[in-house]
Amino acid sequence: MSGALIYACAGAVLFVFGVTGLILLPHLLRKILAFNIMGSGVFLVLVGLGQRDGTPDPVPQAMVLTGIVVAVAATALALALVRRLLSLTGKIQFPEEPEGSGRCWKNK
User: Fold this and answer.
1) Domain residue limits, the chain
2) What are phi and psi for residue 52, nearest 5 degrees?
3) What pLDDT digit, counting tens, does each position of 55-97 carry?
4) Which CATH architecture has domain 3-89?
């Protein structure tokens, strides 16, 4: 088993953990952390599969570096929005939808 395949498999496992956390966890800070874990898995897959004949390909490496910068900026924005939600509602969870206000239209 080559090192590139190990990176790719570890990235796939991290991606699955991130998606699971994003779906199952109600706390917004944990959702942000799960989203970052998911992104790290994608970066590992790109680095692992971005090798040709034992030499690293510079294009996936550049994509990973750009992705890391974008991920840091997105995380900062998400944390600022969560902080604003905390100051407005006092909770770090999405507000619950009241009964009767559904996603589908009702005839009146």
Assistant:
1) 3-89
2) -125, 120
3) 888 888 899 999 999 999 999 999 999 999 889 888 887 777 6
4) Orthogonal Bundle (1.10)
Which tokens sit at 84?
């604003």
Instruction: Reduce the secondary structure of the chain to three states and give it as a string.
Output: CCHHHHHHHHHHHHHHHHHHHHHHCCCHHHHHHHHHHHHHHHHHHHHHHCEECCEECHHHHHHHHHHHHHHHHHHHHHHHHHHHHHHHHCCCCCCCCCCCCCCCCCCC
The tens digit of pLDDT for each residue in 2-31 reads 888 888 899 999 999 999 999 998 899 999
pTM for this model (two decimals): 0.79
Count CB neighbours of 74 within 10 A: 14
